[in-house]
C-alpha cells in the first residue's frame, strides 16, 4: 500500500510538472550539457595555446594538415574580443542554461529553454560564418575551430528534432538532484582534462609579466623572461636572406639587422607594429630593419594586393607610410579592395593611374610566390616572425623590452669583435 501511495504521489508530481509546462527529456538535456562542456574545453584550449604571447607551438590537438595559427591570426575578433573567448562565453552560458533547466530554476524552465534556443541559433549563425570564412577567404583550416562549429551544429539539430517531437508522457526521469549530480561529475571530468591540457603547454610559451610596450628601463621588464625560439633555425649570415626588393628602413651599414616577416591582414602583425616602430625609434642609427611582406593569411592570394601595394610604395620611398595605413585600417575578415589601396596611394601622394597599373598588371605576383616559397622553405608557418642577430625571437618575447635587450646584446657583441 505504501509503495502504491508513493507511486501515486510521483505520478501526481509528474502530472503537475507536465501541467506547468516543465517537460524534461533526460537524454536530450544530458547530451546538450555534455556538448557544452566539450565546447568549453575546445575554446579554452584555443585560448591557452593561441592567446597573446602564445604561438600554438607543439599543439598536439591542431591535427596534421591543419594550420590553426594562420586561421586564428586572421580572426575577425568582433568588438575586439577573439572568437575563442566569444566561444568560451557561449558554451559557459549554454552549460548554465542546461543546469538551470535540469533544476527547474525558479520554475522558469520554459523561459530558459527559449533562451537556449536563441543562444544556439546565434551561435550557429556565427559558426557558419567562420566556417565559410575559412573555406572561401582563407586557404588554411583550423581543426579545433571546425570541431567547435560541429558541436554547435549538433546542438542545433538536437533542438530542432526535439522541437518537432511530441512531448513525452512522463515529464522527467528522476529528481533534479540526480541530474545536477550528473552535471557535477561531467564538470569534474572536464577539469581533469583541462588540467592535462594546461600541463602540456610548453614552458617556453609562457608570456612575460611585463606589458608588451615596456622597455628595458621599465620596472616591469625582466630580461630572464626573454628568449629566442629553440625550435627555429639560426642564420649565421643574415645577408643571404635579403633580396633587392625587400623594404629596408634604417642605415644600410647598420651593425645590427632586424628582419620581420609580416602579413598586412594578420592581427598579431598589426598588434606588433607599434612595438616595431618603437624599437626603430630606440636605435635610429645602429639598426637596419628589413621587412618581408608575405601572403600567409589565407594562402597565396588573399593578401596579395596588400603585399604588392607595399612593394609599389617601397619603390616610391613610402613603404613605412603605406604599412602604417594598412595596419591603421586593417580588416582581416575582408582585406582591402584594389580601389581602397589606390585611395591609400593617392593619400600618400602617388599617382592613381600609375599605382593602379602597377597593382593590376600582375608583374609582382611571381615575387609574392617566391617570398612565400622562401618563407615556407625556412620551415616558418606563421606571422609575425622576427629575426634579430640571425635568431628567431620567441612569440612570448616579441615585446619592446625583450627586443631592445636582444639588439643591445648584438651591439655589444659587434663592438667586442
Q: Could you describe the 3D structure shown?
A:
The chain is mainly alpha-helical. 56% of the residues lie in helices and 5% in strands. It is built from 15 helices and 5 strands. It has a 5-stranded mixed β-sheet with strand order 1-3-2-4-5. Helix 2 packs parallel to helix 7. It is elongated.
List the helices and strands and how they pair.
Layout: H1 2-19, H2 26-50, H3 68-73, H4 83-102, H5 109-136, H6 143-163, H7 176-199, E1 248-249, E2 256-262, H8 267-282, E3 287-293, H9 299-302, H10 304-315, H11 319-328, H12 338-347, H13 352-360, H14 365-377, E4 385-388, E5 391-392, H15 400-415
Parallel strand pairs: 2-3
Antiparallel strand pairs: 1-3, 2-4, 4-5
Helix pairs in contact: 2-4, 2-6, 2-7, 4-5, 5-6, 10-11, 12-13
What value does the average pLDDT take? 84
Approximately how much beta-strand content do the residues carry?
5-15%
Helix/strand-derived category reads: mainly alpha
Q: What's the total helix number?
A: 15
Shape: elongated
For the biggest sheet, the summary is: 5 strands, mixed
Task: Going across the biggest sheet, name each strand in turn.
Answer: 1-3-2-4-5
Q: Which consecutive residue ranges, at least 5 long each, have pLDDT under 50?
A: 1-21, 204-208
What Rg, in angstroms, do the CA atoms define? 27 Å
DSSP helix fraction: 55-70%
Could you give the order of the helices and strands? HHHHHHHEEHEHHHHHHEEH
Number of β-strand runs: 5
First-last Cα distance: 100 Å
Amino acid at each position: 500500500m505504501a509503495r502504491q501511495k508513493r507511486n501515486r504521489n510521483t505520478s501526481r508530481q509528474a502530472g503537475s510538472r507536465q501541467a506547468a509546462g516543465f517537460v524534461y527529456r533526460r537524454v536530450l538535456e544530458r547530451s546538450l550539457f555534455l556538448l557544452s562542456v566539450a565546447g568549453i574545453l575546445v575554446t579554452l584550449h584555443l585560448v591557452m595555446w593561441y592567446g597573446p604571447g602564445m604561438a600554438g607551438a607543439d599543439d598536439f590537438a591542431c591535427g596534421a594538415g591543419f594550420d590553426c595559427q594562420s586561421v586564428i591570426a586572421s580572426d575577425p575578433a568582433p568588438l575586439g574580443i577573439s572568437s575563442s573567448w566569444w566561444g568560451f562565453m557561449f558554451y559557459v552560458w549554454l552549460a548554465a542554461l542546461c543546469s538551470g533547466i535540469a533544476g527547474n530554476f525558479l520554475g522558469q524552465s520554459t523561459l530558459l529553454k527559449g533562451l537556449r534556443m536563441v543562444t544556439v541559433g546565434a551561435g550557429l549563425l556565427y559558426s557558419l560564418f567562420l566556417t565559410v570564412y575559412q573555406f572561401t577567404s582563407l586557404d588554411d583550416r583550423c581543426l579545433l575551430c571546425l570541431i567547435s562549429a560541429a558541436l554547435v551544429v549538433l546542438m542545433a539539430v538536437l533542438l530542432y528534432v526535439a522541437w518537432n517531437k511530441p512531448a513525452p508522457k512522463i515529464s522527467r526521469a528522476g529528481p533534479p538532484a540526480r541530474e545536477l549530480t550528473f552535471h557535477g561529475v561531467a564538470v569534474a571530468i572536464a577539469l581533469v582534462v583541462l588540467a592535462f591540457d594546461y600541463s602540456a603547454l610548453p614552458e617556453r610559451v609562457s608570456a612575460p609579466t611585463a606589458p608588451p610596450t615596456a622597455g628595458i628601463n621599465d620596472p616591469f621588464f625582466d630580461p630572464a623572461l626573454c628568449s629566442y625560439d629553440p625550435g627555429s633555425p639560426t642564420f649565421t649570415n643574415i645577408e643571404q636572406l635579403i633580396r633587392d626588393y625587400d623594404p629596408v628602413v634604417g642605415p644600410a651599414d647598420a651593425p645590427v639587422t632586424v628582419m620581420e616577416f609580416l602579413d598586412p591582414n594578420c592581427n598579431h602583425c598589426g598588434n606588433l607594429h607599434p612595438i616595431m616602430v618603437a624599437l626603430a625609434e630606440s636605435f635610429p642609427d645602429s639598426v637596419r630593419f628589413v621587412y618581408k611582406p608575405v601572403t600567409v593569411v589565407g594562402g597565396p592570394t588573399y593578401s596579395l594586393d596588400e603585399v604588392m601595394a607595399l612593394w609599389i610604395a617601397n619603390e616610391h620611398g613610402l613603404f613605412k607610410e603605406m604599412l602604417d595605413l594598412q595596419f591603421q585600417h586593417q580588416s582581416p575578415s575582408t582585406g582591402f579592395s584594389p580601389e581602397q589601396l589606390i585611395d591609400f596611394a593617392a593619400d600618400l601622394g602617388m599617382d592613381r593611374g600609375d599605382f593602379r597599373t602597377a597593382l593590376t598588371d600582375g608583374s609582382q605576383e611571381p615575387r609574392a610566390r617566391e617570398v612565400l616559397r622562401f618563407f615556407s622553405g625556412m620551415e616558418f608557418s606563421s606571422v609575425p616572425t622576427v629575426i634579430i642577430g640571425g635568431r628567431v625571437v620567441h612569440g612570448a618575447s616579441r615585446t619592446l623590452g625583450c627586443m631592445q635587450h636582444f639588439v643591445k646584446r648584438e651591439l655589444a657583441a659587434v663592438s667586442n669583435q
